[in-house]
Specification:
Distance between the termini: 75 Å
Radius of gyration: 27 Å
Strand content: 5-15%
Strand order of the largest sheet: 3-4-5-2-1-8-9
Number of helices: 23
Mean pLDDT: 93
Largest sheet: 7 strands, mixed
Structural class: alpha+beta
Bound molecules: adenosine-5'-triphosphate, magnesium ion
Amino acid sequence: MDTLTSRSEKIILEKLNSAGYEAFFAGGCVRDAVMQKLNMYVPAAGDIDVTTNALPQETERVFEDCQVIETGIKHGTVTVVLPEGNVEITTYRSDGSYSDNRHPDKVSFLASLEEDLARRDFTINAMACSLDGGITDPFGGMRDIRSRVIRAVGEPERRFEEDGLRIMRALRFAAVLDFEIEPETARALFTKKHLLKSISVERVFTEFRKLLTGRNAGNVIRRYVDVLGEVMPELAAMKGFEQHNPYHRYDVLEHCIRAMEVVRTTPENIGYLKMASLFHDIGKPQTYSVDDNGIGHFYSHPAMSEVIVNNIMKRFRADNFTARRVGTLVKRHDLIFEKDECLLKRWMNRLGSDVLAEILEIKLADNFATGNMSPELSQKFCDIRELLQDILAQQQCFTLKDLAVDGNDVIACGVAPGPDVGKALGQLLMKVIDGELPNDREALIKSLS
Ligand code: ATP
Ligand code: MG
C-alpha cells in the first residue's frame, strides 16, 4: 500500500504509534489505494481518514504542537491541520442503536479496530491500513474491489435502517466507481427506499450530484430510478413514457439518460451540466398531446421542464448558482441556433457565452440521444461551437463591458444622465455586434454626435 504509506500524512500514524496508541488509515483512502495498486481507475482521491484507539482528548494531546480542530468531538473526530491538508482522526467507535434512521443513539469509544470497521457502510470502505502497509480486511473488501462489487457490511436492510443515507451512498459509489451492487444489498435498496425521506435533503442532493458525475451513472439511474423516485418522483415519471414521435426512438427517461451520458463536460461544469442534461425533458410527461395522425407532441415542454426543475431545486435546497444555471439550461435547451455570427453574439450577450456554450453541448447530446441522430444538425451545432470559440478567441465585442466607450463618453456627447445612457450604450452595442460600426472609441463617439 505504498501509495498510502509513502504519503506525508503517515506522520499522524507515527506520532500516535510512538505515543503508544494504535492508529490506521481507514475508509475511502484505503479503498482508493487498493484500487490504485490493482491498476483500477480511481475517480478523485478523497481525503485521508485515520482511526485510532486514542480518545479525542488523547489525540489532541499528541498533536498539541499542531493546529487541531474539534470537528465532531461528540463522535470522536478531531481534525489535524497539516501543510498538505487536513486529516480527520476518529476514535474507534461502535455505534449503538439507531432509532431515527439517521443518527446513532449513542456512540461508544471502547471498541476495537474490528468493531470500528464493522460500523462502516460497505465492505470496500471497511478496511484499514497500518504504517507498514498491512491491510486489515475483516469483511472481504479486497475481494469485492477485485470483483467490483458494493456490498453492505452485515445485513443490508438493517444497515439502511440505521442510516438511510447509505442508500444514496450505495448508488453513488456504484456510479462513481463503476461497480455493481451485490444482489442482497440491491434488494434492500428497494425494500428500504422509503427511508430516504427521513434524510436531510441537502445530504441526499450532495450524493445525487456526485452520482451524476460517475462513469456508471446512466446504468445506476436505469436500474434504480424507483429508489431515487422516492425523493424525486419527477425523475421516475419519465420512465416508460413513450414519445410516439418519429424523431425519438426511446422513452423520455432513456432519452434523458443517454443525453446525460454523452454530454461533453469539463471538471468545472460536470456537476450541473450532467444534471441539466438529465432533466432537460423532465417536463415532457406533463405536456404530452397526440395529433390526428397519432404523432406525439410536447409543446412548451422546456418551460414546463424549467418549472419542475425549479421545484426540485427548491425542495433540495440547492445552492443559488446550481438552481439558476440548471433552470436556464433546461429552459433554453430548445433555442434555435443558426450559423450566424451576429445572432450568436446577441445570444452571447443575452445569456453569457459560457451558458450558450453549455446549451450547445446539451443540444448535441440531445440530438445524439434521440436514437435517430441527424448528422446535419450535429454538424451545424459543431460549426456554431467553433464560431463561438472564434468569437471568444478574437476577443470580439459582444457585451457592454467590451464596448470601447462607456457611460461617461455617452454623457459627454450630450446624452442626459439617466436611463437614456443605458439605452444609447445598448444601441451602440447592437450596431457593433451587427457590424454597422467598428468597436472603436472615436468612431463610436462620432456616431453619437
Ligand atoms: P469519498 O471521500 O471518496 O467520498 P469515503 O468512503 O472516504 O468516500 P467519507 O464520507 O469520506 O467517504 O467517509 C469516510 C469513511 O467513513 C467511509 O469510507 C466509511 O468507512 C465511513 N462512512 C462514511 N459515511 C458512512 C455512513 N453513512 N455509514 C457508515 N459508514 C460511513
Ligand atoms: Mg473520504
